[in-house]
Amino acid sequence: xxxxxxxxxxxxxxxxxxxxxxxxxxxxxxxxxxxxxxxxxxxxxxxxxxxxxxxxxxxxxxxxxxxxxxxxxxxxxxxxxxxxxxxxxxxxxxxxxxxxxxxxxxxxxxxxxxxxxxxxxxxxxxxxxxxxxxxxxxxxxxxxxxxxxxxxxxxxxxxxxxxxxxxxxxxxxxxxxxxxxxxxxxxxxxxxxxxxxxxxxxxxxxxxxxxxxxxxxxxxxxxxxxxxxxxxxxxxxxxxxxxxxxxxxxxxxxxxxxxxxxxxxxxxxxxxxxxxxxxxxxxxxxxxxxxxxxxxxxxxxxxxxxxxxxxxxxxxxxxxxxxxxxxxxxxxxxxxxxxxxxxxxxxxxxxxxxxxxxxxxxxxxxxxxxxxxxxxxxxxxxxxxxxxxxxxxxxxxxxxxxxxxxxxxxxxxxxxxxxxxxxxxxxxxxxxxxxxxxxxxxxxxxxxxxxxxxxxxxxxxxxxxxxxxxxxxxxxxxxxxxxxxxxxxxxxxxxxxxxxxxxxxxxxxxxxxxxxxxxxxxxxxxxxxxxxxxxxxxxxxxxxxx
Length: 546
Known about the structure:
The chain is mainly alpha-helical. It is about 45% helix and about 5% strand. The chain has helices at about 60, 80-115, 155-160, 165-195, 205-215, 225-240, 255-290, 300-315, 330-345, 355-360, 365-375, 390-400, 410-425, 440-460, 495-505, 515-525; strands at about 1-5, 10, 35-40, 40-45, 65, 380, 465-470. The strands form three sheets. A three-stranded antiparallel beta sheet has the order 4-3-5. About 15% of the residues are buried.
């Protein structure tokens, strides 16, 4: 029998010392053969003290040859590639085992350290409604069929729909829902701010609350609370251009209800995404304000940021704060920060993503306090003059100098790099090719003056530029999320779809049956363009369209 190595050369197999099967021999002390499994040029070595695993399909799937040595002391010496493969396999197995054990240990420590709270029902013992322990248990997906996977096919409306009137009506409905959600989000922010300023109690958020707000925009909202009605009346007085007649209901209440449910989810995600970052920004502003009793003048901006992160961890109460390694921990500084932490009232503790998502209304008062402080343009300065210029500092000044010039984004970026390079290398400005400025141009002279002045300040240790507390300037945020004015997709249910068909002249009366809606889908849209050429292809053993 001959084998081929990696280079394609033939290699003879040593002959066996015995024709009899060593496994079935009567000699109990006969040495077992050393099997060598060769698959596609690679070999796996099985040692003598470990029996090879049996597999009935091995003989059919891969060619196997057994090479038996004359005795246990004269076994076949493994090749260099075999040793390398065995070493890599053992190293990989050890790494996977260590990762698995570390993950299990971290999971057990997390479960012992804190008891999760459900974001839906608010009870401890589970974290979400998809857990069967939740009283309001909801499975992760609605099992409409026995099939295990759900897919969405994206296609163009104009490319698949056969009725032009239906396309126009559908686009009008999408614009109608867009207008309601856009102005409804504005009114939600107005209502929350008014309730907080009047020290009113904000109820727990749910789909019904935002549906009432959207209904007020459409001129309905008879079932809305007294606070929502009072806020809407004040909203109309403060914004005289707003006219509810432009948003009159067109009968698609189910679509508005779906939009209210989505906005409730967006509201919770908005608070979770902004709470920690904006709170740290608020703390940095106070630590950098010379008029604040908790001002830390002897620390750099980076050290103040690390102190702000430590204060937030302590004030949130979710886990023990980690003291910054680069800052000396003195009794005076620790006492000052302890007083600062006691002065903060973020909301119910512990504060984490789960509690923020479960009860966002309880943390809006703190977010309003943060918003009022962050809205001011607050600058800070380094305690020690730096020896370099940051990209943000150069960009702000170059943009101010080149305000009258209309440069492309790429040309502006190249100019910023050229100015920063001239400052750091103490050289003259080398304009990029895409920026056309003459030596007599006022902008060029201003850029040259800016470079000379910055270099002089750095050399004399007088360079202490103003910095924003936010990396991108003083960015404002809202208590509730704002919706985009662009037309977005909507989810059509049977009721809305049947009403659209009637308004387009396709059907004479509405219907409620899903099977009838499915038939109308197939007639109205060219389903062959998305892979369903016939009616029978909509439901097969492998796929079901709906």
